[in-house]
């Protein structure tokens, strides 16, 4: 009987172990994504927005699976909630499961026709992101949003395809509550 390769905390979902990769994204890595550029520039560029811990021991092989836990800290740039960069899979037809562990947020998806969906993420929520669908999460609460994910090891992350035009909606605070704003309604 072998010891487990890694473990995740049943209380906060964090992954630990020798085969766990950790990536940190800071505000400076998210330049150009938020609507309020002035608010962005007034903030500390070194501030950590999210961390991703991934168990990717098999490498990017066809048929393999990766398992990850993202922790997205609470915060806003102007009225817009902290969010991940967002991506579509390099191998476009690869899907992914997400599930809510801690905190509250939104899963924003966009299909190839640029049609968006927004789903509430909360502890216990389960989300299937189909292939050919870009995805991003936002933290709409006051505590870290912790989200689990499992995806095909050969999916890859394409950020550039999304960076060009972005998602068609933003998740912003209005009167103290999260709302979905259509970017077409923006006057910038
Ligand atoms: O594979 C996924 O979709 C997640 O693990 C994300 O990579 C993670 O949430 C970070 O988001 P992004 O890769 O868009 O920076
Ligand atoms: Ni993904």
Would you mind describing this structure in some detail?
- The chain is globular and about 60 Å long.
- The longest helix has 5 residues, at 37-41.
- With 188 residues, it is mainly beta.
- The strands form six sheets. It has a six-stranded antiparallel sheet with strand order 3-4-5-14-9-12, with no helix packed on it.
- Helices cover 5% and strands 45% of the residues.
- Strand 1 (7-8) and strand 2 (15-16) form a beta hairpin.
- It binds 5-phosphoarabinonic acid and nickel (II) ion.
- Nickel (II) ion is lined by residues 87, 89, 96, 135, 151.
- 5-phosphoarabinonic acid is lined by residues 25, 52, 68, 70, 84-87, 96, 135-137, 149, 151, 157.
* Percentage of residues in DSSP E strands: 35-45%
> What is the structural class?
mainly beta
Give me the number of helical elements. Answer: 2
In which range does the helix fraction lie? under 10%
State the end-to-end CA separation. 60 Å
In total, the number of strands is 17
Overall mean pLDDT stands at: 95
Strand order of the largest sheet: 3-4-5-14-9-12
- Uncertain residue ranges: none
Instruction: Enumerate the distinct ligands.
Output: 5-phosphoarabinonic acid, nickel (II) ion
Helix-strand pattern, N to C? EEEHEEEEEEEEEEEEHEE
For the biggest sheet, the summary is: 6 strands, antiparallel
Rg calc: 16 Å
What is the gist of this entry?
With 188 residues, the protein is mainly beta. It is 5% helix and 45% strand.
Keywords:
6-stranded antiparallel beta sheet, mainly beta, 188 residues, 5% helix, 45% strand, binds 5-phosphoarabinonic acid
